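Job type: complex structure
Entries:
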Amino acid sequence: MSTHDDPKPTHRPQPTGQRDAEETASPPEDMVQVLSTDGEILPGAERPNLSDEQLLEMYEELVLARRFDERATGLQRQGRISTYAPMAGQEGSQVATSFALEDEDWLVPTYRDHAAKHAHGRSYASLLSHLRGYREGYAVPDDVNALPEYIPIGTQVPQAMGLAWGFSMQGEHDRAVLCHFGDGATSTGDFHEGLNFAGVYDVPAIFVCNNNQWAISMPVEAQTASETIVQKAAAYGIEGVRVDGTDPLAVYAVTRAAVRKAKHPAEGERRPTLIESCQYRLGPHSTADDPSAYRDEDDASGWEERDPVERLERYLYREEILDDETAESIKDDVEDCLELAVERAEAVETDPGRIVEHVYEEPTDRLREQLSDLAELRERHGDEAFGEVGE
Amino acid sequence: MSTTTTPSEQGAETETEPLSLVEAVRDGLAGELARDDSVVVLGEDVGTNGGVFRATEHLQDEFGPQRVIDTPLAESAIVGSSIGLALSGMRPVAEMQFMGFASPAYDQLVSHAARMRSRTHGQYTLPMVVRMPYGGGISAPEHHSESREAAYVHEPGLKVVTPSTPTDAKGLIAAAIRDPDPVIVLEPKRLYRAFREDVPTESYTTPIGEASIRREGEDLSLFTWGSSTQPALAVADELAAERGIEVEVVDLRSLSPLDIETITDSVRKTGRAVVVHEAPKTAGVGAEIVATINEEALYSLEAPVTRVTGLDAPVPLHSLEDFYLPQALRIREGVLETVEA
């Protein structure tokens, strides 16, 4: 399975049947959209049921996400956090999907869904703290219904299905589960097994494929011979929706409809939905990745103008929901918020004894013994000695 | 463990019924399904068909298809969805039809089930059970006879138990289901119908983490579990009758956590030890037991510890199976070699 620690690939795979690179680059047209790239409501589309205030909140969340991304990348370069998976270009979809959830709904995120997690209630400080190597950062606050990020690819799909299955078994029909994964995950067995189970047991789950066109170095055309990801939904008897993932209003609308259907399906309607959210990963796969090794800069042409932050911004200016003064104050708030998050994350402390905590509800005798051996060594040599590299 | 109960004292008027090991598994499952609404049994063919070994026979009739669930054929999703079920507040009991087919679910078990508690700092826990019939000796086709316990024992966060008697099968199933951590129950399929035993009809749990001394002895400690326990006991009886060698047979029952105290106390008493298991020798659980004896009781030893195990080869098809498994002959040779050393 790929993780952000994968070594840099040395060649670009060229399977038979791969479409040419030009086709790779251009955004697909057959997808749900609400906003034009200029931020105008498209003919036939309508503004989703969001107040001006909620739209401003969504915008602030997007600005915060973009700045968090830049800040986290900088912190990684300074050695203050470990490998980070940037989300530039994907914030619109992440924020909009979480906005479509209610507090009682569950979020099952990947390692790239920082903004989705934050919009569903996680703090950026806690996200930074696991990136600083503190497992405490994976502990989700009790009042937030989210799992910690999944690092192996696709494994979360059957688990999210099971979570939704459990809620319906227990008659908790007011809960939906939203599960994120990338285009690469659709090649794994777990994706197919999870979606198949979801269809068979008709569970209240929304599976969001964040098709950012690249699984590290592998373009989506080389990932699957399917014309689209969303068509795979048909194989499992569930609904599939393809949406422009850089259009926050469109993503919100389709996700909101899927959440409603998961909890309150109409007669004959099936609960689960697969959403293919078409986006582009503007940056590298991770801070350990160099995309110039496998893609040309103009691969992004047609996508850069679909920047989700600017797209919503243009709409808000056009509707006079946002003006320069508000935009300025949002920027200031975002900077303050990030300052605080970094400060809090850097203040987190831990203790070596915590390595053996929470392995089981009750530690085994052997774990207790190992903890006391460790404590004795620390006592005798001091913690500094543990960082020394042997001759 | 949330609650621990044991069968009523022997001699008290405990109601019992003669059950085979597979019937006791079923009885244990039925008891927990009745006791706790959050328990669900899921897997391939566990419902209408009652399981390929009949371990779940009639459970669907009794508890309905919402509690005893036939799933599509997909081991990773059976375990993966069980993780989700446990997170939602259910207590899933998943069946892997054969241990040899559990490999696709290994990723879900070790990458997620084993570490959900520790990586979330104790916030989310997985009270789930995965049952796997294991071992050979039933002339099964390829991939139906594996003993891969070491792979799961090596994974912190998982517990691994294996019964060798009907009484323990029922008690360990109940304990596993009530346990707050993920537990793998390895069921020795060779013993499923090998014999019957009077099993208490009441509900009880057999504590996880405690070995059982099946036969007391002063001359040598024989450590084993699951399917090898019966041949080990037969050999011990034979050697006592023929040569006056008294072998103490310790059925570990719980492979993770190991009952280190019982192991080392026994070695201190006898000074000699043999470990018997079906799995391949290299890096098997036997190696762990020998290492533990070295660490804790080396100076009590009067001879090197011997391992009698399966070979470091894939389990052969059944024409050669008796040469692979640690049958009575090899156990006997291993014991004599250690006693005479």
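Summary: Confidence is low (pLDDT under 50) at residues 1-25 of chain A. Chain A touches chain B at residues 1, 135-136, 138-140, 142, 147-148, 152, 155, 157-167, 169-170, 172, 177, 189-190, 193-194, 196-197, 200, 357-361, 364-366 (CB under 8 Å).
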